[in-house]
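Posted in: Structural Biology > Protein-Ligand Complexes

Title: Requesting predicted complex, NAP in pocket

I'd be grateful if someone could produce the 3D structure tokens for the following input. Sequence and ligand are given below.
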Amino acid sequence: MTQPTALITGASRGIGRGIALSLAAQGWNLVLNYARDESAARRTAEDCTAAARDAGHTLRVTTQQADIGDASDRDRLVRAARDFTHSCDLLVNNAGVAPSVRADLLEAGEESFDRLVRINLKGPFFLTQQIARWMIEAPPARPARIVFVSSISAYTASVNRGDYCVSKAGIAMLNKLYAVRLAPHGIGVFEVRPGIIATDMTGPVREKYDRLIADGLTPIRRWGTPEDVGKAVASIASSHFPFSTGEVFNVDGGFHLRSL
Ligand code: NAP
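-- Reply #1 --
Done. Output follows.
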């Protein structure tokens, strides 16, 4: 069988990079999207090539700049992916942003709300629409998969970043919607829900979370890593869950558990 191909948004840094490295080691070809940091995207592509080689695979990889919140950029990204491969086996909707400034719910402004909903929710909504049509029109050799990277913020109320929480709660609904709509086409849809993961996004709140984790916020008392999320996505990608769709995979050190 020919090597499968994955399109990963926001793959230059952080969690997207971790997902790319895990898939590369399993022999996936990759379309790596990024927004601004071209050199980081190139570095990730090189590291993926090395990871694939170490695992005995030959990788085809391309990097593609596109703001997923922008319709014409999404069109350009999909065109580039279609030039790269006949069919798409896996879409990972990972790209996302945190609010530039955390603001109390009673003070929060529309500009930040619009930015977060545009990039974190509208982008995945319409990118998935385009890729799903392609998956139906040109079915890949293995069952196609779509993964949404949401967050514990999909169900946790943080009143100093309500815009982010709303965007991630919307992603949880996208998982359900696309799971139902695409099941008749044999396309599995999954939500991966990371907890507190050490990336640039959490850099500004590192000390605060160090304290919370040490105090027992998560049963597994450590930061999560991009590799932790990468391993979860690679498991989903390998079609190990043929009779599941719309599932939520918590990758959060047990944050979602209640205990007494
Ligand atoms: P990160 O380190 O800040 O990396 C973000 C990635 O997304 C970068 O590759 C960036 O590309 C890309 N990106 C940003 N805006 C984009 C846009 N408009 N179009 C396309 N790509 C864009 O963030 P991260 O921590 O890895 O987060 C990745 C995902 O996981 C996000 O959806 C985030 O909400 C979610 N998440 C993170 C955590 C956490 O604790 N870190 C927890 C739960 C969920 P450039 O660098 O080129 O701009």
